[in-house]
Amino acid sequence: MERTLTNFIRALRSSEVRVSTGEALDATRAVALIGYGDRTLLKESLGCVLAKSEQEKQVHDRLFDLYFSHSESKSKSDSNNEEFQPEDGESQPAPENLIELMQSGDEAAISTAMERAAEAAGIDDIRFSTQVAYYAQQIVKQMGGEGLQERLLEALQGREPQDEADAQELIDIRRDLTMRARERAERAFDVFGAGETQQFRDDFAAEKRLNALDRYDMERMKILIAKIAKRLAVKHSRRRKKRNRGQLDVRRTMRANAGLDGVPFNVIWRQKKKDRPKIVAICDVSGSVAQYVRFLLLLLYSLADAVPDIHAFAFSHRLKPVDDILADNEFEQAMTKIIREMGMGSTDYGQAWSDLKVGHESIIDRRTTVIVLGDGRSNYGDPRADLFREFAQRAKSMIWLNPEGRPLWGTGDSAIPRYLPFCSQMSHVATLKDLERAVDEVLAAYG
């Protein structure tokens, strides 16, 4: 029974339900009190202990119904089905017992035998949908499928009318057994493998180059960005204050205890002031970079709870603020409008910095992290590195995210070497994982 609960918790974790060690111990205590007899009570009790949000509660209820639908048959006593159990020393039942079992129509007995075979086949280790057929074959094998196949071959080779009838019956039995084994393997995949398969697909999508994505990837990427934003928000939204630790503030401690004859009953520690994150995103939305901008802005604006002070500008030639466009439209409509209005024309970084200087320089202050997303290619125009230097002097940090690989920096009309000395960091970003890493580092600087 402990293994039953442990496997259920493993299934929850594989579906991104965060279950800590302490919560697992609480679940064990809850099961010890109420037992497995009342499934409704068990479901509600484990849901209270293991699920911490409405979304996790839905996942818990779905997996509980799937998992305990077959665990119930495992928990039944096998004493009523002794005639179908293998003899001592045998790894699988004799084909005669298997045929008798399948002919009996006793669903409880068949289910119990199937569960024993599934456990022997290691069904809980299934991870991918491509393994369903393999585990179904292993279940059939553990139930005596090889012997059944031999009996079928003998019947097919017989010349008597009875042999033909026996062969047809054995074919029906094998088909029924195979279908049951496959259903059992599919159910195990839904419990243990579906979550890990989804995680594998997410990891693959996060490592896929953003400029190689097509429209079929967009919905998955939106879901993935929401997960990333939630993960970053949980990590960075709480401004943890370190109390009763660090360096003693002698002056404030003595002043706080002046009325106590100087006895330091109230000890005060020096606290390091932490700035609230402020991000200004400046995005080149020309054709070669627009796809990267789409995902950066979606990620940043999904972090509104953790970083409420976000400002975005877009340009290819003239730079304009896009906060109102993003606020007043659905994201995809907003991006279409931004690219249509600001993504046309010859790219000119010098003009963009001039527009920022004239109309919006005051938005950059000592706690501002400026994130520039662009390839730095300005069609051989003046890059106005002098203005970029001024912005770097005003800001907390200047982060440049470049979709082009490092070997291309400075080639052709790339002005990247002119900007590089004034950047706190310049990184190559090609995938969603790169964007996540960059935003994580920006937020960590405020920690």
Automatic annotation (TrEMBL):
Chain segments annotated as transmembrane: none
Region (Disordered): 71-93
Pfam family, one: VWA_CoxE
Compositional bias of kind Acidic residues: 80-90
PANTHER family named among the record's database cross-references: BLL5662 PROTEIN-RELATED (PTHR39338), BLR6139 PROTEIN (PTHR39338:SF5)
Protein name, as recorded: VWA containing CoxE family protein
Organism: Hyphomonas chukchiensis
